[in-house]
Structures are given as C-alpha cells and as structure tokens.
C-alpha cells in the first residue's frame, strides 16, 4: 500500500517551495548513487541491504514524480516513516524479550517458593474463592430474585420418615439378599428438593431425663401392633397407651435390664455395673440394640452406648432409640465395615442381635476385634452358647475356637451369656500356632479410665500427630464458645417456649437440648466443652471425608463419631437431632470440587433436625451471608451474630419452625 501523499496539481510547482524541493531532490539523488556504488563493491553487505529494503520498501509507482492519480509524494516523509517502522519493530522485539524473562522468572520463583508462602497463597486463594462464591450468589439473587428466593415446597406424606440411600426394591432387583437388600447405596439418585413435614399428631419430645422413659407414639413409625407382637422381654420393658410409650427402666417393677447389667459386671469381676468405669469401660457399641434400654440404664454411670441396627422399613430400633435421647445410627454389621476407626470401643454388646458369628469364615468376629480396644470386652447373649442339639454345638465350637485365635480370653459363661476379654499383650499373638487365622495387625496400649481419657497425655497425643498445647488451646477455645452459645440460646428458647409438655416450670438451661450433631468435629473439643459445662447431652461427632481425619483421636478421648460424606444423606431418620453444629464446614466443602451444593447440605440438615430445633453455623463472613440467604428458602428463622475474638468470622443461628401436616 502507498505511503500517505500530499494533495497537489500534476506538473505544477509551488513558488514558495520549489527551490528547496529541487535542492533536496538533487541531494537525495547523489546520496542514492553513492550508496549503490558502495553496495556493488561489497557483496558482504547484501544481507543487510536486503533487510533495509524490507524495512524501507516503497510500493508507490514513481519515486519522486507524480503518480497516476495526480498526487505528488512528500520527499521528506519516506525517511521518517521508515524510521518509525524500525522503532516499532525494535519495540516489539523488546516486548517479547521482556515477556520471556518474566515467564522464566516466575517459573524459577515457583520452584523456590517456601512451604509457608504456599500456605499464604492458598489461604489468599481460598478467600478470593469464597468472595467469588458470595458475589455469584448475590448476582444470582439480584438477577432472578423471585425464582431464586422462592421457598421450598413440602414433601408428600409418604416421605414423612424418608431416609435417602435405602431402597429395598432396587437392591432386590440387583440380586441382593440375605440382609444385603437393606444396605445403604448412595448412588446418583434424584434429590428430594423439598422439606419433610412432621406427622399429623407429632409432638415436641419431653425434656431429658423424662423423655428417656416416655415418648409420643405419633413421633415414631412403630405401631401398637408391632409392640404387642414383639418378644416377651420387650413387652416387659414397654407400656403402650393411646399417645405414649413408657419404658419402665426406672420402675421398681422392672428388673430385667438392671439384673442383666449387674450379671455382666459380676462376670467381669466387678461388684456392679457402676464399676464399669474402673475396668476401663466408657464407650459401648450395642449391636442390634432393640429400643436402647441397655444404654439408657448405663447412662447414669457415665457410660456412652452407641446403638447400631440395620435399616428397617417399619418399626425402627434406631428411630425409637434416638427419640429417647440416646445415641444411635443405622449401620449394617453383617455386610460392610462399620464407619468407625479401629480400636474404637471398650465393649461390644450383642444380646440376641441376630448375627451369626460363626458365618463368613470369621470375618464378622474379625470386624468385632478391629473395633474393640485392647483389654476391651465382648459380651454375647444367645441360645447358641448354651445349645443342646449337635448342630448348634458345632456352631458354638466354631466361635469358641476362633476367639482363641483372636487372643480373646473367655472370662465367664452364665446361662446364655458369655464374656470375653481382648488381650492387651502382644506376646499372645506371637505365641499362636503358625498359620492361625487371622493375621496380626494393629497397635496395643493400656487404656486410661474415664474421665482422664478426655485429656490425653503427651505420648498419647503424639500417636495422633498432635502436641499438648494444640489440644489445650482447642479446649479453652471451645469452652468459651459453649458459654457464648448458651448465653445466646437460653433467652431465645425461654422467650419463645417457656414450657413444654411434661414441664411444670421452665427447665434450667442444662437440659434444653439432648441430641447434638457436630458436622465438622475437628478434635472433639465441642463435645468436651459441653460435658465440662455440665450439659446433659450426647454428641454425634462427624468427621467429613473432605477434611483431616481426627476420628481415632475422638474415640480415644471417650466420645463417639463417624466418617461421613456430606454430599450424601446421614444414616438416620428424620427429626432426630435437637441441635446441629457446623464450624468451618462450609469453607471445607466449598474448597472442594463437590457434586452437591450448599442448598443440598441445608436440606439434609432440615431433614434430620427436630421441629423447633437449632442450627449454629460458624464460618467466614461471605459464606455466612450466602447461608443466611438460603435460610429464607428453608423457612428458618435466622440471625447473624458477630464474634468478638474473630473479625473474619460470624455465627449464623437458626431455628426450624414447627410445621406439621394438617389432618384430613
């Protein structure tokens, strides 16, 4: 393309400038001739000459005369234009060189960056990510407020006791049987984006300890017919009227559980069940627990009994036990490894629990051994232990011989009850016959007694990779937090609900809550602080699979808990917890590329929370604001509270309203 030209008349000179232009023209012509001569005499300059031609090329048809369009070129602009192009070319080369240097420097800096710097950068990235999430939610709410903030609908009546991940018909269709059809299968099922209503006649549970022995019939799935068709022991333990089920564990007429517990204590070598603590027993896994009466009786002795039972489409042991304010969860002992770490419990109890311990080549006994702490006790009550026919005697012999290979010592056998003690000495395993199953694994240690277990010593903490000052600081922090929580909740609860059924006067704050779920339990400090404050509660400590696994530490401290993926439903029935607590859970989950949303997690919280139950969420300000926006869709009452000791975090305190289905 031709360079820009001045407008002029073809062949006409301008009088004011014709002399200068002519001299300039002659000078350029002489310079050009000298340049050509030098170039022809020196062939080594050809490459340079070629580059110069490229840089200073002129595409016009005439050098200095008029062209075919009648425009006369400027004799001075060619040189200036050429220099300008050269400068631009050099600038481009310089820019490319600078970019290469910058990339190389960045790469070297990345390789040499320290671990601390990486943590700071990651923390900064997390903060930016949280802010981005908050901003996106705000933008979405502003752009589509009517649809985004619409309240969720209530679920249909058949979902009143709905538990996701348990579909018996689908499991049967896959060929599962022998109890496996009741297994938990959390696949990509369609989520129920609705709120589960309470049954028509649902009533708020009675306060503890009254609620331990009396529950409302309408609050559970079990029917009067199912109670009357249960075994004689169950009927002796329960009385049923139109509205209530009464458990007679505190009655002088009822001696079954008390005598049974006393018998077990004597078989161990103790005076009575109140001495279990002295024998190192604090946590008990009650397999197939019935309606939780064994754990209810032992609770006053500071023993913590976790009930586990299979999923039941109707008449649930787990639902009824939780309704009584006792620890329980759905779990199948026969098909899958339980979600507890190894060496978790001081005692395993199975009273006619329906498990055939002689089956599956000893795998069920191996799982029991895995869960049992060294020096712990295995209590089994079954007609098989006192069998008279040959087949059952053979089955009993299989169990007896296998427990010897596990290095369990049979302490005593009375009637149908047998008590074994798991050895705490490693030399027993080395003295076994070669090839005796099962192979050796695990670690051994002496068990401290409760409550000293709550404060593990330096050597015990070192097993978990922690130091004493870390736990001490965590404990003090949670003591302050629990004090603040109760200061906030007490006036709210008593102002809204000064009395409940069965209360003559407003109860003191210690028992205003009973079943507590900690969705991100960390070291178990929240649980510890509640007990130190004298609160009559039990805590299900949950360790999310997306975070550090401190569950072994929690069990070693004498508490109970499980691993769980919060993108899946928790294995419990609706309306089973009075308080759900989540410290840092939202930050933990949003940092992962999860397959669920914050709303999915909140819908699950609503499912397992009792009417008039409470939610306490502690997290960063952007995430708390995002969570607060979601509470509108859930119909929760919510308020945000500042934290004096932390300007970067907030508390979100919510209460679930009491909605129930209207009678037809």
UniProtKB/TrEMBL annotation:
<keyword id="KW-0472">Membrane</keyword>
<keyword id="KW-1133">Transmembrane helix</keyword>
<feature type="compositionally biased region" description="Basic and acidic residues">
    <location>
        <begin position="14"/>
        <end position="39"/>
    </location>
</feature>
<dbReference type="InterPro" id="IPR004159">
    <property type="entry name" value="Put_SAM_MeTrfase"/>
</dbReference>
<keyword id="KW-0808">Transferase</keyword>
<dbReference type="Pfam" id="PF03141">
    <property type="entry name" value="Methyltransf_29"/>
</dbReference>
<dbReference type="GO" id="GO:0032259">
    <property type="term" value="P:methylation"/>
</dbReference>
<comment type="similarity">
    <text>Belongs to the methyltransferase superfamily.</text>
</comment>
<feature type="region of interest" description="Disordered">
    <location>
        <begin position="1"/>
        <end position="46"/>
    </location>
</feature>
<feature type="transmembrane region" description="Helical">
    <location>
        <begin position="90"/>
        <end position="111"/>
    </location>
</feature>
<keyword id="KW-0325">Glycoprotein</keyword>
<protein>
    <recommendedName>
        <fullName>Methyltransferase</fullName>
        <ecNumber>2.1.1.-</ecNumber>
    </recommendedName>
</protein>
<keyword id="KW-0735">Signal-anchor</keyword>
<keyword id="KW-0489">Methyltransferase</keyword>
<feature type="region of interest" description="Disordered">
    <location>
        <begin position="428"/>
        <end position="448"/>
    </location>
</feature>
<keyword id="KW-0812">Transmembrane</keyword>
<dbReference type="InterPro" id="IPR029063">
    <property type="entry name" value="SAM-dependent_MTases_sf"/>
</dbReference>
<dbReference type="GO" id="GO:0008168">
    <property type="term" value="F:methyltransferase activity"/>
</dbReference>
């Amino acid at each position: 393309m031709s360079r820009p030209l001045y407008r002029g008349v073809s062949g006409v000179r301008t009088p004011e400038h014709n002399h200068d232009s002519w001299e300039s023209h002659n000078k350029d012509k002489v310079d050009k001739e000298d340049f050509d001569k030098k170039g022809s005499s020196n062939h080594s300059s050809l490459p340079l000459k070629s580059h110069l031609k490229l840089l200073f090329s002129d595409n016009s048809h005439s050098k200095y005369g008029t062209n075919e369009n009648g425009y006369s070129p400027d004799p001075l602009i060619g040189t200036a234009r050429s220099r300008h192009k050269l400068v631009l070319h050099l600038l481009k080369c310089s820019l490319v060189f600078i970019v290469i240097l910058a990339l190389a420097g960045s790469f070297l800096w990345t390789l040499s960056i320290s671990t601390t710097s990486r943590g700071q950068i990651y923390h900064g990235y997390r903060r930016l990510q949280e802010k981005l999430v908050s901003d996106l939610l705000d933008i979405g709410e502003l752009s589509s407020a009517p649809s985004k903030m619409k309240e969720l609908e209530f679920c249909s009546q058949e979902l009143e006791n709905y538990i996701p991940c348990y579909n018996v018909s689908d499991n049967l269709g896959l060929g599962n049987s022998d109890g496996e059809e009741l297994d938990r299968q959390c696949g990509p099922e369609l989520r129920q984006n609705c709120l589960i209503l309470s049954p028509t006649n649902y009533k708020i549970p009675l306060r503890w300890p009254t609620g331990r022995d009396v529950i409302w019939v309408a609050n559970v799935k079990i029917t009067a017919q199912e109670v009357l068709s249960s075994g004689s022991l169950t009927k002796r333990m329960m009385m049923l009227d139109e509205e209530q089920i009464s458990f007679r564990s505190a009655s002088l007429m009822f001696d079954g559980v008390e005598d049974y517990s006393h018998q077990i204590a004597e078989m161990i070598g103790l005076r009575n069940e109140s001495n279990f603590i002295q024998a190192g027993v604090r946590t008990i896994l009650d397999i197939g627990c019935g309606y939780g009466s064994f754990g209810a009786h032992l609770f006053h002795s500071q023993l913590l009994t976790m009930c586990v039972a299979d999923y039941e489409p109707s008449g649930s042991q787990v639902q009824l036990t939780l309704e009584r304010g006792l620890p329980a969860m759905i779990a199948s002992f026969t098909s899958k490894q339980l979600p507890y770490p190894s060496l978790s419990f001081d005692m395993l109890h199975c009273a006619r629990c329906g498990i055939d311990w002689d089956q599956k080549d000893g795998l069920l006994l191996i799982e029991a051994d895995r869960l049992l702490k060294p020096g712990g006790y295995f209590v089994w009550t079954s007609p098989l232990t006192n069998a008279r026919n040959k087949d059952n005697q053979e089955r009993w012999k299989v169990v007896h011989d296998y427990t010897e290979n596990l290095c369990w010592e049979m302490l005593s056998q009375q009637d149908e009850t047998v008590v074994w003690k798991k050895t705490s000495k490693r030399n027993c395993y080395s003295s076994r016959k070669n090839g005796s199953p099962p192979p050796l694994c695990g670690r051994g240690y002496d068990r401290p007694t409760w409550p000293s277990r709550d404060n593990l010593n330096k050597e015990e903490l070192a097993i978990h990779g922690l130091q004493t000052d870390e736990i001490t600081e965590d404990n003090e922090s949670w003591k302050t937090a629990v004090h603040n929580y109760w200061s906030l909740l007490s006036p709210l609860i008593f102002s809204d609900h000064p009395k409940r059924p069965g209360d003559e006067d407003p109860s003191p704050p210690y028992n205003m809550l009973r079943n507590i779920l900690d969705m991100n339990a960390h070291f178990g400090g929240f649980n510890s602080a509640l007990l130190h404050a004298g609160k009559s509660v039990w805590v299900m400590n949950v360790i999310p699979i997306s975070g550090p696994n401190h569950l072994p530490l929690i069990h070693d401290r004498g508490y109970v808990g499980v691993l769980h993926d919060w993108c899946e439903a928790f294995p419990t029935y609706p309306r089973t917890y009075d308080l759900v607590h989540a410290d840092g859970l939202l930050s933990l989950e949003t940092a992962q590329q999860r397959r669920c949303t914050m709303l999915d997690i909140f819908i699950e919280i609503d499912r397992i929370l009792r009417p008039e139950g409470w939610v306490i969420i502690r997290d960063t300000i952007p995430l708390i604001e995002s969570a607060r926006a979601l509470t509108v869709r859930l119909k929760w009452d919510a308020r945000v509270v500042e934290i004096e000791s932390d300007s970067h975090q907030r508390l979100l305190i919510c209460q679930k309203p009491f909605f129930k289905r209207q009678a037809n």
